[in-house]
Design a protein that fits this description.
By secondary structure, the chain is α+β, with helices and mostly antiparallel strands. It contains 1 helix and 9 strands. It has one helix at 23-53, and strands at 58-63, 67-70, 74-82, 88-96, 101-103, 111-119, 124-133, 139-151, 158-171. The chain has a 5-stranded mixed β-sheet with strand order 2-9-8-4-6, with no helix packed on it. It has a 4-stranded antiparallel β-sheet with strand order 1-3-7-5, with no helix packed on it. A hairpin with a 6-residue loop joins β8 and β9 (158-171). The longest helix is centred in the first third of the chain and has 31 residues, at 23-53.
Length: 180
């Protein structure tokens, strides 16, 4: 086999120049990486700030009897606990009743909106609503409780919704009329 010489006589060897990256491109790379790192840190900080102001430790409990009698009033108790570190502004409770349920009192509507105002951190606010089921016996109805609020440092309104199923049993009073 013939060997290929490293150099061909009479021809100058081809030397490829070593290309070094320009110094300013390393500077640009450093600036880009530092900027992305700074944006990441800012985004992470913003996430925790907004998360802490969104009322993570805000809870609602709704207590009702599991079974009620048609025509007999019962109490719907709503407890709001603000265990967050920020104020909950313009807090409201909205109760949506199913058909054939009414509030005891001056309102005859199927919903009631009660403004609670601002709730300070650590506040516990109990509210009681008196309701009469007027529906047929042996049915299941659903009550919807919405608590609407503006958390501490944010300007948008948030809502938490809880629904409760209530079994309507036999009527509380039966009236039998017999003619004389």
């Amino acid at each position: 086999m013939d060997q290929i010489p490293d150099q061909i006589p009479g021809v100058a060897p081809v030397v490829s120049p070593v290309v070094e990256p320009p110094k300013h491109s390393m500077k640009k790379l450093f600036i880009i990486v530092a900027s992305l790192l700074a944006l990441g840190i800012i985004a992470l900080a913003a996430f925790f700030v907004f998360r802490s102001g969104a009322g993570d430790d805000f809870s609602i409990t709704v207590d009702t009897p599991e079974r009620v009698q048609a025509g007999v009033p019962f109490n719907l108790k709503v407890n709001i606990s603000n265990d967050s570190g920020s104020m909950l502004k313009d807090t409201q409770i909205i109760i949506n009743l199913p058909d054939e349920f009414v509030f005891v009192g001056p309102t005859k509507e199927a919903f009631q909106n009660k403004r609670l105002g601002d709730l300070e951190p650590g506040a516990i606010t109990p509210e009681t609503f008196n309701i009469i089921p007027m529906s047929q016996e042996n049915t299941i109805k659903q009550i919807r409780v919405v608590v609407s609020y503006i958390p501490g440092t944010l300007s948008g309104r948030f809502e938490k919704v809880i629904t409760k199923d209530i079994v309507i049993g036999e009527p509380g009073a039966i009236l039998n009329l017999t003619p004389p």
